[in-house]
Every structure is written in C-alpha cells, then in structure tokens.
Write the structure tokens for this entry.
Amino acid sequence: MSGTKASGDQGEALAGRYLEERGYAIFSRQWRCRYGELDIVAQSPGGVLCFVEVKRRGFGAIGLPREFVDGRKRERLRRAAGLYMARHGLDCPARFDVAEIYGEQDGGLRVVYLEDAFA
C-alpha cells in the first residue's frame, strides 16, 4: 500500500470515528462505481443521508482541503451519490459534506467537519 493510500485510509478511519461519536450511522466506506468513489456514506442523527468526501493535508500544506473538491470532483460525487441512492432504493433527504483532516505539528490529526459543503 502506498504512503498516500495509507494516509488517506487513516484519514477516512478518523472521519468515520468522528461521525460515529456524534451519532451518525455509517452505511458504506469507499463505495466504488463507474463515477468514482464515495469515501463515506452515513446517516445523520436527524435522518439525512450524508455523502462525505474526506480530504487530508499534512502539516504546513498549502491550501484548504476543501479547495481540492473542485467542480469536476463535485460533479462526479453527485453522479456517484445518485447511483448509490438508486441502487439502494433510497428516497430521502441527502447532502454533501467534507471532512477535512489536518496533520498537526506534533504528528496528531484534527478533523474539521463541513456540513452541506456544496449542493
């Protein structure tokens, strides 16, 4: 496994724990389809289906993780989310969230969670 893949998996695991600690139910992790991958699919405590894009940046990295969810990426996520809902027979409120994972100077990780990051 490459360092980037391992780092990304570690960030996704942290984001999943963050969500579970706040009452979210995780439905899927790393769900793949022809449009790409949905990092985490979860249901909020309020019943909203959340498609969570996890972005990790190391200490001192330039740019906010959310800035790397550009227009092309958002469109792929929308298509993948539509396919996920169709394949699972879901008809419920949904949103797109971004979990930013920041590497700290001491080597720790910190989560900044952005609900409804884009439409």
Q: What stands out?
A: The radius of gyration is 14 Å. The mean pLDDT is 90. Strands lie at 25-33, 36-43, 49-57, 94-103, 109-118.
